[in-house]
Every structure is written in C-alpha cells, then in structure tokens.
Specification:
299 residues; alpha/beta; Trna Endonuclease, Chain: A, domain 1; 6-stranded mixed sheet
Length: 299
C-alpha cells in the first residue's frame, strides 16, 4: 500500500447481488456436459444438445460450458499420473499405428497430455518435450500431424492458450472500468508489479485490483479484488489453487473478493474472500471480443 493516500481513504458501501448455482445442479449439469474423451471445442450441434438438456435448470449455457472446462481440468489433473504410469504402453500402441485421439479416448485424458506421455515413453525429458512442442517442426511428419490433431481436439492442455489469456485481460479491464465509474480508487496489477519490482527487485503479491478506498461489499471489508474469467466450480483442484492465491493476498492486505465471470456454485468457499459474480458489470467489450473470435465452436 502507498505510505500516504491523498485524500485519505473514503468508506464506500457497495451492494452486490449474486445468484449462486446450487451444488446439486453443478453435479447434475456436470454429468451432461462431460463425455469421456471429449476435451476440445464443441460443435454447435453438441452445444444445442446441452442447451436442451439444461433449459429447465437454474444455470445458463455459458455457465454450463465454463463448468465443463473446470471439470475437464480436474480430469486432466487426475489422469496425469495414470498417463505417466502407462507411458510405455502408450508409446507401443502409438508405434503400432494407433492415433493420439484414439489413445486419448481410451485413457479419457486430454489429447496433448496423451501425446506428451507418448514422448515420455520414448525416454524424452520434460524439457525436451516442452521445447519440441513449442517448435513442432522439429518432429517427424507423423508426429507433427498427430500433435496438430491433438491441439485441435484439446482446449484443456493445449500449448497455445493466448485467446483464453486475452479474454481474461478484457474481463479485468471491465472490472477496473466498473470501479472507475464508481469513483473508487485502486492500483492495478501492472502498477503493483512495477512498484514491487522497483522496491523489492521482484513481484511479491499482485491481485488484479488493490483498493485504496475503504470498500465494504455487502457489508464485508475488501482490500483487494481478483477477476476470474471462468465459472467458480466447487471442485478440489480449482478450489485448492485459488485458495493458495487468496492466502497470499490475505496475508499481505487482509480480506478481499473474487469476481467470477460466469458465477459460482453456492457451496464454494474460499477462506478470506467473498465470492461475487459479474451481474453488475457491463460485459459488452467481452461479448465483442468473443464475437470477433467466434468460429462455430465453443469451450
């Protein structure tokens, strides 16, 4: 925090209505949106099928698709050990002609992770695999073709996540604009990065927004806010990952808030942070971003 704030912090009371999704709905919709071996972008027909199956439930299609991403991420984490244990078997099957997508379905694991396991079965080091996948033209023709298929069919462990990152940045801009319009003062993450590098030689703790005014959201004091451009699912992997981040922020600044772009499950708890959704935000810039990148496929 700055040593002095001029004028001094002003107390601001904000009402932020949220509409959490019940845990039983998360479970029910999870069974609908996740199919074994299905880790890529969904064609319009599959999205329409999901829409028809959830239209009577208190969850939107956008929330359901984002939940699918969280469930597939969880599945990716759990399947990693199984893939590595079977790396030699995967490599043998691949060498006999089985494609990476067939093997991905057989092991219900993301295609790119499956391809990594095949390379590991050849005795390749993690670093060699990482560098090769960044420069796929180093591989032989079949490997290049199979890796390309894996990338196209994998939204979870794909090497290129640039669109996802850009959308997250647009959402962060929207959140900042919201607090600007409310005339609430804050430091952005890039300001904190620069200041901490100058003072400490490295970035220490950098939430998306560090609030300089005394902000109370739904009666709860909030020193910082972090933007999450996804659905807040009550699942072990994302819950644990976010809690580690929250713990660092709380230790440095005190309690804060997390704003989930696609809402969250009502049973989700992140100690030290209140959970919010995007309902009061103007999401027009995000809609425009997604429209520009729309190509008949969905997350």
């Amino acid at each position: 925090m700055p040593e002095s704030i001029d004028p001094p912090p002003q107390e601001r009371q904000l009402k932020w209505r949220t509409n959490a999704v019940p845990k039983n709905i998360q479970r029910k919709v999870g069974d609908i949106v996740c199919k074994p071996g299905e880790f890529g972008f969904l064609p319009e027909e599959r999205v329409d099928e999901i829409r028809g199956q959830i239209d009577h439930l208190p969850i939107t299609i956008e929330q359901a698709l984002s939940l699918r991403g969280a469930l597939n991420q969880e599945k990716s984490v759990h399947s990693h050990g199984r893939l590595m244990r079977n790396a030699n078997q995967l490599r043998r099957r691949y060498d006999k002609g089985e494609g990476v997508l067939t093997l991905s379905q057989r092991f219900d694991a993301p295609p790119v992770n499956t391809f990594r396991a095949i390379l590991s079965g050849r005795g390749w080091s993690k670093n060699r695999i990482k560098e090769t996948l960044k420069n796929p033209d180093r591989m032989n023709k079949r490997d290049q073709e199979e890796f390309s298929k894996a990338e196209d069919a994998d939204k979870v462990s794909s090497v290129n996540q640039s669109d996802t990152q850009t959308a997250a940045e647009v959402f962060e801009d929207i959140l900042c604009a919201h607090f600007d319009n409310l005339e609430i003062r804050f430091r952005r993450q890039e300001d904190l990065l620069r200041e901490q590098k100058e003072a400490e030689g490295r970035a220490i703790v950098t939430p998306d927004l560090l609030l300089l005014d005394d902000v109370r959201i739904n009666g709860v004091p909030c020193a910082w806010i972090d933007a999450k451009h996804f659905y807040g699912a009550d699942l072990r992997f994302p819950r644990k990952k976010t809690q580690k981040q929250v713990d660092r922020y709380v230790k440095e600044y005190g309690q804060g808030a997390i704003v989930y772009r696609h809402g969250f499950t009502g049973s989700l708890v992140q100690r030290g942070a209140i959970l919010l959704d995007a309902s009061p935000l103007d999401l027009t810039p995000l809609d425009e971003f997604h429209e520009k990148r729309a190509g008949g496929s969905h997350s």
